[in-house]
Amino acid sequence: MRTHYCGELSAALVDRTVTLCGWAHRRRDHGGVIFIDLRDREGLAQVVCDPDRPAAFGAAERVRNEYVLRVTGRVRRRPAGTVNPELRSGEIELLAHEVEILNPAAALPFQLDDENLSEMTRLSHRVIDLRREPMQRNLKLRYRTAMAVRDYLDAHGFIDIETPMLTRSTPEGARDYLVPSRVHPGEFFALPQSPQLFKQLLMVAGYDRYYQIVKCFRDEDLRADRQPEFTQIDIETSFLDERAIQDLMEGLIVQVFRDVLGVDLPQPFARLAYADALARYGVDKPDLRIPLELTELTDVMRTVDFKVFRQAAELANGRVAALKVSAELTRKEIDDFAPFVATYGAKGLAYIKVNDRTRIPDGLQSPIVKFLSTEVLRTVLERTRAQDGDVIFFGADKAAIVNAALGALRLKIGQDKNLVEKAWRPLWVLDFPLFEWDEEAKRWSAMHHPFTAPRDGHEELLESDPARAVAKAYDMVLNGWEIGGGSIRIHRAEVQQKAFKALGISEDEARAKFGFLLENLQYGAPPHGGIAFGLDRLVALMAGVDSIRDVIAFPKTQRAQDLLVHAPSPVDEKQLRELGIRLREKPRP
Predict the structure, then answer these.
(1) Kind plus residue range of the DSSP H or E element containing 250
(2) Same-domain status, 322 and 249
(3) H or E element: which one contains 407?
(4) CA atoms within 13 A on the CB side of 36
């Protein structure tokens, strides 16, 4: 029905007759001449409808926004002074010979160029939202990213292998989405949280370089970078150690950015141990573009008179840390930070404003100065390298609370005060603990997943001292977003059983949940490991958007609803009876 896309027209086609199909983006009647901006996925072309062509002109008079049109005409140069340099087709226009209305359109629920749309409106009318240029740009970016990933992995010997969407429920950290079986009443499939177990089994089967761009499902609380269904670039290899995998995957991301954005990421990527990331930035996915770091003060505060600092320093898992800020802060801004950090569990936010660092304590402005000795204050200034005009914020509590509060404050101040460097700052975070203590359940849980291998020589710590066991795990972080995480896997059945025991998973439970994995690990499992990148997060970063919903064609809301098709939705009683399911009223809290 067409010879070209609208956005493909250029001066090279002048005097050619072409046929375009698309939507009437805008119609303008200039007193005898009608202009129509015709739009398709590749861009806009200006169509000129002249009264000298009565049939075409008559059709153009009936056209309204978003009508679907087929236009045939001659490409000509625009008159001098009317060239639009922002359009690929901006040098030319199409003089219409024929205009065919393929389908009229009802009035849209919103204008495509409206930049103040609520997300509720956009998601309720997602099909119309997807016509907007930002969404078309984002989804094409996503496509090019996926193709660049496939090209790189194919060139490095990886094979794309599908794994099942209907599998068994296994404890992997989040809640499973369950699918009832009609054929086996009372039994359920689960949608995969990841292909983790299957890709390990593929390594046992000898497919030593596997990948898959795959949907995964987790029934968890949502936020801007989470969806109940999301897309992973899932990768597994055999006979490669941690560094070899990291180098290979670093090359993947470098190639993707070069091919898709024309950007050369700095290489080699920075490398940071997990413990150092928490100590310096408060989080395990630090944004290195912000030139602010935490300073350790726990040792200094163990003997001070200030009770808040001393008690935190004396806790077995306590921490006192400082965040020095070299930016102009008003008293109101400083006061407003206290309720901000309270959302992360902090009970308060002490500070010192440095007016004259040579005069201690008189040159320091703060309610807490009188509780700290001159020697302690001098140490604080030396360690933070504070200068006149700086403000030092303090966190004192359990280490987890201090890290969360000061880490979030670091980000907020960096963004509010325009301290964020305009750059790409990739990072590998390494040496994660194998386990973390679940205070509520009073047991160890896997920091990554139960199949992560311990560092060589740490196998015995699985039984004797799980807190000290370090994982062969690694995360790739970019500008404060974790875009990928992976590890070397446990490939020996006896080590896997020790890991299950440390996690409080009994032999019977392990056999019931993971018997197929444990059995196949006995049949010559090779050393193997891999990584999974979040495609949605990666594309969101590349597109410069704040939410992964802006790079997914049909996303869910933060309440896990699809406003376009109104899902989830009730099903009729007949379907439930076929599945042997009876609904109960949810008890009131």
Answers:
(1) helix 242-261
(2) no
(3) helix 399-416
(4) 36
Give DSSP secondary structure letters for 293-359: -EEE-TTGGGG-S-HHHHHHHHSTTEEEEEEEE-S---HHHHHHHHHHHHTTT-S--EEEEES-TTS
Tell me how many degrees the CA angle 103-105-109 measures, rounded to the nearest 5. 160
Q: pTM here? A: 0.92
Backbone angles phi, psi at 289, to 5 degrees: -75, -15
pLDDT in tens, the chain (589 residues): 999 999 999 999 999 999 999 999 999 998 889 999 999 999 999 999 999 999 999 999 999 999 999 999 999 999 988 999 988 899 999 999 999 999 999 999 999 999 899 999 999 999 999 999 999 999 999 999 999 999 999 999 999 999 999 999 876 567 899 999 999 999 999 999 999 999 999 999 999 999 999 999 999 876 767 899 999 999 999 999 999 999 999 999 999 999 999 999 999 999 999 999 999 999 999 999 999 999 999 999 999 999 999 999 999 999 999 999 999 999 999 999 999 999 999 999 999 999 999 999 999 999 999 999 999 999 999 999 999 999 999 999 999 999 999 999 999 999 999 999 999 999 999 999 999 988 888 889 988 889 999 999 999 999 999 999 999 999 999 999 999 999 999 999 889 989 999 998 888 888 888 888 889 999 999 999 999 999 999 999 999 999 999 999 999 998 899 999 999 999 999 999 999 999 988 777 6
Contact assessment for residue 539 and residue 257, using Cβ atoms and an 8 Å cutoff: no
HSE, side-chain direction, 13 A CA sphere, residue 19: 8
How many distinct structural domains can be found in the chain? 3
Q: Which two tokens stand for residue 482?
A: 């974790």
Neighbours of 234 (CB within 10 A): 24
Domain contains 233 = yes
Write the CA distances from 165 to 82, 189, 207, 340, 581, integer angstroms: 55, 9, 20, 42, 22
How many Å from the N-terminal Cα to the C-terminal Cα in the chain?
60
Widest CA span of the chain, in angstroms? 93
Buried b (16+ CB within 10 A) or exposed e, 552-562: beebbeeebeb
The token pair that represents 282 in the structure block: 């408060």
Q: Judge if 479 and 411 occupy the same domain.
A: no
Amino acid identity for residue 294 in this structure: L
**Are 183 and 94 part of one and the same domain?**
no
Residues 307 and 395 in one domain: yes
- 230 located within any domain: yes
Domain assignment present for 589 = no
**Domain shared by 310 and 221, yes or no:** no
Domain span at residue 328?
290-420
Quote the CA–CA distance of 388 and 401 in Å, as a whole number: 29
The secondary element (H helix, E strand) that includes residue 74 is strand 68-77
